[in-house]
Amino acid sequence: MMENILNIITTVNKYLNSFIWGPVMLVFFLVVGLLFTVRTKVFQITHIKDWLDVTFLSLFKKGNKKVLRTKDKHSISQFQSLCTALAATIGVGNISGVAVALALGGPGAIFWMWLSAFLGMMTNYAENTLGIKYRYRNEKGNWVGGAMIYIEKGLGWKWLAVIFSVFCALASFGIGNISQGNEIANGLKNSFGIPTWVSALFIMLFVGLVIVGGIKRIASVTEKIVPFMAITYVIGALVIIFANITKVPAAFGAIFSNAFNFSSMGGGVAGFTIMVAMKRGISRGVFSNEAGLGSSVMVHSASDVKEPVVQGMWGIFEVFADTLVVCSMTALTILTSGVYDYNEYAQYVGKDLPSHLKSGVALTSAAFESVFGSFGGKFISIAVMLFALSTILGWSYYGERAIEYLFGIKAVPIYKIIFILIIFIGCNISLSLVVDISDTFNGFMALPNLIAITLLSGQVVQMTKDYVARVKAGKETVSGDDVA
User: Cα dihedral sign for 101, 105, 108, 109?
Assistant: First the structure.
């Protein structure tokens, strides 16, 4: 009886998952990103100096401490909001997801990942701009914002906001908890022989100590973990790329040529096709940076920023850093290291890969081991642990915001306790169905969010025009602070 029920659930989830992460929805992601790109006159390119000045470059300007620290005890700084958002997006997928995209979609998948990120910059920009516009303070004085807030206040559709929040809360337990804990526990067990229950207790203790302090403590931790783990990983990847520098042109050649490879689309010939590359690449980009899901806007809304457009520009940088930098490093590392054979992988499109062909974390580990030896595998295990741990912290806040919206602020402590306890389950039990279902919930967050930002796009465009006009007129600095 139970087996039949599980089979039915698996079948239904497979159908729903194929829709929400299928061609129609992936095209929807691209179209929405294209809409904002066109209507803002390619803002991510035409105003690249502005958004770099207000984000990354502002961290190095003397005397500019506003982005690093805030005097508002109920807010977090702009940099902390970025790090907390990146904590949730820069995860195991940046290591394993890119490798899976290459293994199952070919080098061309990386091009489509880049395209989805380029357009996703403006999707994330729109989300964060609307998040600041419609946010409000709760009874404790903390900022509350997110897709559910601008869906309710901007569109007046509370029912759709509730649907979004339900999917978000459920996804936080799966994608944001169980799957991450499982990756950490298994990685430490395989590389260092640490029992999964020991890893589980450590993660529970660490996460519990952090999330009990709310967004201020989460942000304080992520602003230290995220830059360290991202920079360390990128440096390791760069060492491998420079060790194989002569293969870099060929890697880029493979990415661009395979992205438009029509040669194996007909006649039943096995091999990567443009459709396979597009599906794997676009879905990888969306999975990685979460632009369009409406998730990271919840933490960006807690920033002390006053100008919505400024926080929108931090959203642009978030997608840039996550996908165009970190994911690209993983891709180039694999393609230049010699561990990936295009012709071999092309024979198994639509089939299960044989044991001698690596995918996921194993493929990325092999690339690092090609230069660093056995240390490379341990390095990746540690990177997976840090990436997954930060993802748990980020998603705990997303789930918290969703629960508060659905049941009120008094329900948040109960959610935190359940969230911490579930970590133990994720570390010690194989729950592939639960993770697959959570993946579906994760995708279904996107549908109400994409509908909302599309209908509210006029407001985003107008706020952008007004801000640009004020900056040109000298009435406002690029950081959003009044000149006077």
Answer: negative
Q: In terms of Cα–Cα distance, which of 85, 182, 223 is closest to 433? A: 182
Q: Residue 175 belongs to what domain range?
A: 2-472
Reference 218, options 387, 404, 392; nearest CA is: 392
We report the CATH number of the domain holding residue 224 as: 1.20.1740
pLDDT digits (tens, 9 = 90+) for 24-38: 888 888 999 999 999
User: What's the pLDDT score for residue 264?
Assistant: 41
Residue pair 129/460 in contact by the 8 Å Cβ criterion: yes
- Cα-based distances in Å from 297 to 127, 193, 476: 6, 38, 24
| Partners of 351 in beta bridges | none
The answer to whether position 331 is within a domain reads: yes
With cut-offs at 50, 70 and 90, classify the pLDDT of residue 64.
Answer: low
pLDDT computed for residue 38 by the predictor: 95
Q: Is the pLDDT of residue 165 over 70?
A: yes
Q: How far, in Å, CA of 201 to CA of 137, rounded?
A: 35
SS3 143: strand
pLDDT for the residue numbered 148:
93
> Any idea which residue has 């809360």 for tokens?
169
Q: Which of 36, 429, 475, 457 is nearest to 196 (CA)?
A: 429
* Single-letter code of the amino acid located at 45: I
Q: Establish if 364 belongs to a structural domain.
A: yes
> Which pLDDT value is given to residue 299?
86
In a domain, 483, yes or no: no
**How many structural domains does the chain have?**
1
